[in-house]
Every structure is written in structure tokens, then in C-alpha cells.
Amino acid sequence: MKLEGVELRRVALPLVTPFRTSLGTQTVRDALLVRVATDEGEGWAESAAEDEPTYSPEYLEGAADVIRRFLIPALFPIDLDPAAVAPALRHLRGHPMAKSAVETAVLDAWLRARGVSLAAYLGAVRRSLPVGVSVGITDTIDELLDTVDRHLAAGYARVKLKIEPGWDLEPVARVRETFGADVMLTVDANTAYRPADASHLAELDAYGLAMIEQPFAPDDLHAHARLAAMISTPICLDESITSARDAVTAIRQGACSIINIKPGRVGGYLEARRIHDVATAHGLPVWCGGMLETGLGRAANLALAALPGFTLPGDISATARYYERDVTAPFTLVDGELAVPAGPGVGVTPEPSDLEALTTATEWIPAP
Ligand code: NPQ
Ligand code: MG
User: Fold this and answer.
1) How far lies 257's CA from each of 66, 216, 276, 337, in Å?
2) What spacing in Å lies between the alpha carbon of 316 and ligand 2's midpoint?
3) If 0-12 CB within 10 Å is exposed, 13-18 middle and 19+ buried, where does residue 263 land?
4) Which ligand is nearest to the CA of 289?
5) Strand-pair partners of 286
6) End-to-end CA distance of the chain, in Å?
7) 260 CA: nearest ligand 1 atom
8) How far is CA 207 from CA 45, 116, 180, in A?
9) Given this model, what pLDDT does residue 144 score?
10) Burial class (CB in 10 A: 0-12, 13-18, 19+), 69
11) What pLDDT, on a 0 to 100 scale, did the predictor assign at position 292?
12) 287 alpha carbon – ligand 2 mean position (Å)
């Protein structure tokens, strides 16, 4: 397959409610879409990069720049297939979210031309999945309880509360006492704590959480291992894991017993599958994280989350949890589950009218 040109498209999707985490508050999802045009047809994907480098060092304009100036020029000369993309970009350091978008768009085009779904290609074993919801920090506990109540009524299988110093033990205790012991409840700190907070975090052990996600800095595996040894609640890593090699290192150090896999954070769906494979081989469950994806990323994440080792519900909510209008048809919960797209490639394409309405800028990169 030969690459003939690439479109970079900026879209802005207003969120139905502001999403507050320990990293800041988001009201609009500015996303970068990539469309590759090849001699065998086109493919679409999105970059997980946010407009500001808060969750990860990558950010939207940076991702667009590295794609335009370095990634695409490295792909024009080669004979393309999905497995050829990462090796052709390996000499360019970092930028996993930019690389993931490009690799996924190539995967979509290549699979579409062959009539194969991403789910089938990756090794999916389920046609629909129970999914979780990530609940932002709210102004009051009453507002949090109302929000959790709505999500449980909608059928979500797991509730994740965003926490930070000053918003941890009390919201968790109140959610647990209001909704009971049977609700699968987790917390995510997005690196907001210091190692000296370990004994405070150990108090979370009283609330039967299914995991504590990423309490400490991404590069502090030791602090996570120390906390893991102090408490019985499992530790899950998100920001710390950027490759299958990182996953093996973290597991060997006892820094986590669960891994949140985000394809963008690790450079694509092929590396994501490798993390699934090494985690499963070590007996760890994994789940698919979320980056406020448009329908394009949501579809691809559902394909990945249908692999056998994804035994915990992911942050792959229905479209309506985040957006009133999306670039694709909405995903909806049916009996508490989302369907894994079965069509060729990622299984969805942008709806032209929605795509146009949400687009803020486009750019065409022609073959040299
Ligand atoms: C997490 N996501 O698991 C992330 C973090 C996150 C769904 O909880 C804009 C775009 C703002 C992506 C804030 C969820 C974001 C973002 C936080 C992702 O850690
Ligand atoms: Mg997280």
C-alpha cells in the first residue's frame, strides 16, 4: 500500500459537562483527526493529545507538527502495511500519541481494503462489553452523588472517581455508603500525590476499591511499589506505562497489579496488544483507558477492549456521557454494554455534516 497524502483536521467538541481532574478542567475537547489517502483507499484515526501538555508531554499542536514534518515524510517512501509503520518511525524519539494516530489511520485503510475489522485483526473474543464511567471532581459531594446515581441508573458497570489532595476520603466514603458494597468503585489521582502521602492513601483501604490508579509521578515506580506493599487495594498504573517494556519493568518491581492501557499513550494498538499480552502472561488484568475520544477513537478502543485479557470495564463510555454531537454516529449503552464495531477497519466513519460542523481547521499534506 502506498501513501498518497494525509489530511490533518482539527475538531472542537463541546463537553456536555465540564470534566475536572487533578490536572485541570476541560470544557471542550479539541482533537486532531488524521485521514490517510492511499492507493487502496482511505483510513481515519485521531490523536489522543490534548490541547495542553498536562496529562502527557504531548499536546495537539505539537502532535500536528511532528506528524506533518517528521512522521508522514518517513512513510511516503515505504511500502505500507500496519506492522511497517512503527519500525519506520522508530528513529524519531517519543511522540507516541502522534505515532498512534498515524499507525491507526494506516491500519484502518489497510483493514478496510481487506474487509477485516480491527476487532478481528487484534484478536477480539467478545461482541459487546460492559463499560465504566469516569466521574470528574465536583463542587459539592451532593453533586457527585447525583452524578454517580445517574450513571449507575444508565447501566455503567464500574464508577471511577477522580481524586486529588482534599477530595479523596470523604467523597469515596459517601459514594460507598450511598450506593452500597456491590458497586465496582475505583479512584484515579492522575499523579496528584507525593510519596509522603502514602499513609493517607492507605486509609482508602477501608472502602473496598477495585483499584487506586496512578497516585504518584509517572517516573516514580518505587513510590507505587511501596504503597502497593502497604495496602491491600490493587494499584493500577496509567501515566507510568508507555510501552510493553515499561509494563514488564513495573510488574517486576511490584509497582502495579493492574494496567490501564491507552493506545495513544503507548504508541498505537499494536503496542497496546503487546502490553495486554505481557500483562496476561504475568497474570495481571488490564482495561482500556479513555482520553475523551471522538467516535473514531471510541470505536477502536472497543475493538481493543474485546481482547480476552481486558477483564475489567474500561473508560469507554457512551457518546452521550461526553458529547451531544460527535463526528460519528453515537455509541449507546444497551443493557449496560457497548457493541464492538464489526465493520471493516475501525468500523465507523465520520458523518460528513457533523464532521464539517465540528471542524475548526484542515490541512492537506501531499506526497512529495
Ligand atoms: C485518565 N481519562 O484515565 C484520563 C485522564 C484525562 C477518562 O479519566 C482532555 C482530554 C482532558 C483527555 C483529562 C479519563 C483529559 C483527558 C484527563 C484525559 O487518567
Ligand atoms: Mg488515569
Assistant:
1) 34, 15, 13, 25
2) 13
3) buried
4) 1
5) 259
6) 16
7) 3
8) 39, 44, 10
9) 98
10) exposed
11) 98
12) 11
Torsion angle of C-alpha atoms 8, 12, 17, 19, degrees rounded to 10: 40
Distance 113 CA to ligand 1 centre (A): 33
Q: Which ligand is nearest to the CA of 137?
A: 1
162 is catalytic: yes
Query: In Å, how far are 73, 87, 92, 314 from 78, measured between CA atoms?
Result: 10, 11, 16, 35
Give the pLDDT confidence of 173-212 residue by residue, as tens digits: 999 999 999 999 999 999 999 999 999 999 999 999 999 9
Give yes or no: 99 in active site: no
Which ranges of the chain have pLDDT less than 50? Answer: none
pLDDT at residue number 268: 98
Q: Name residues with Cβ closer than 5 Å to ligand 2, which is an ion.
A: 188, 213, 238
pLDDT of residue 13: 98
Model confidence pTM above 0.90: yes
Q: Which ligand has its closest atom nearest to the C-alpha of 56?
A: 1
3-class state of residue 102 by DSSP:
helix
Q: What pLDDT does 279 receive?
A: 98
Ligand 1 first shell, C-beta below 6 A: 19, 21, 23, 26, 29, 50, 55, 134, 188, 190, 238, 289-292, 315
